[in-house]
Amino acid sequence: MEYLVAGLGNIGAEYASTRHNMGFMVLDAWAQASNTLFSVGRYGSIAEVSFKGRHFHLLKPSTYMNLSGNAVRYWLQKLSIPVENLIVISDDLNLPFGTIRMRQGGSAGGHNGLQNIIDTLETDAWARIRVGIGNEFSRGGQVDFVLGDMSEEEIRQIPEISSRIIQGIKDFSTIGAQKAMSFLNSRIKKEENVEKNAGETSEN
Fold first, then answer.
1. How do residues 151-179 score in pLDDT, each as one tens digit?
2. What DSSP assignment string belongs to the chain?
3. Smallest Cα–Cα separation from 36: which of 19, 22, 23, 51?
4. Distance from C-alpha of 202 to C-alpha of 100, rounded to nearest angstrom
5. How many CA atoms lie within 13 A of 55 on its CB side?
6. What is the distance between the alpha carbons of residues 98 and 156, in angstroms, rounded to a whole number?
7. What is the per-residue pLDDT for 187?
8. In the chain, where the domains are located
């Protein structure tokens, strides 16, 4: 069983530790943990890891964020991978930092990279994992925020975030999308319950 896992980001050392490169960071962590290296190919860098008979092709597009669809389409076709076996990892301004949400299908949520993939593939019927980067910026500062470097505290959280996402993708391939989404989205539910309970306590 073959899967394409595309992590979105911008190429170049100047973008390496920026919030918009969350997808690259997760794939780098997976490759490092698997003792494998990326090789430069058309439209991006590619690495391969295996788990229980599943083969994951890790793709870091070299097309820049807003043209990510070209790289994803090329590698899906080259590797003969069906679109339902595509998983895309991206950052998300609408989620608190470190929050992970997985879903199948749906809109791009304002993310230009996801939108370009939808437009290029002419379908949204593929899985995406969105990683929260927060939205702590003043009005008009969105671009500087997403292209800004993470704080030291945020960088320290990347290994845990990556590990959780990697496990979720393995679950997706072995025990199904619903259980993978339940695993990855469970922290959100717990946080929501904590906030709700805190609110109820303060009202009493």
1. 999 999 999 999 999 999 999 999 999 99
2. -EEEEEEP---SGGGTTBGGGHHHHHHHHHHHHTT---EEETTEEEEEEEETTEEEEEEEESS-GGGHHHHHHHHHHHHT--GGGEEEEEEETTS-TT-EEEEES---TT-HHHHHHHHHHT---SEEEEEE------TT-HHHHHTSBPPHHHHHHHHHHHHHHHHHHHHHHHT-HHHHHHHHHHHHHHHHHHHHHHHHHHH-
3. 51
4. 28
5. 9
6. 11
7. 63
8. 2-203
- What residues act catalytically? 20
Superfamily of domain 2-203: Peptidyl-tRNA hydrolase (3.40.50.1470)
Sign, CA dihedral 147-141-98-84, equals negative
Residues 39-70: pLDDT tens digits? 999 999 999 999 999 999 999 999 989 999 99
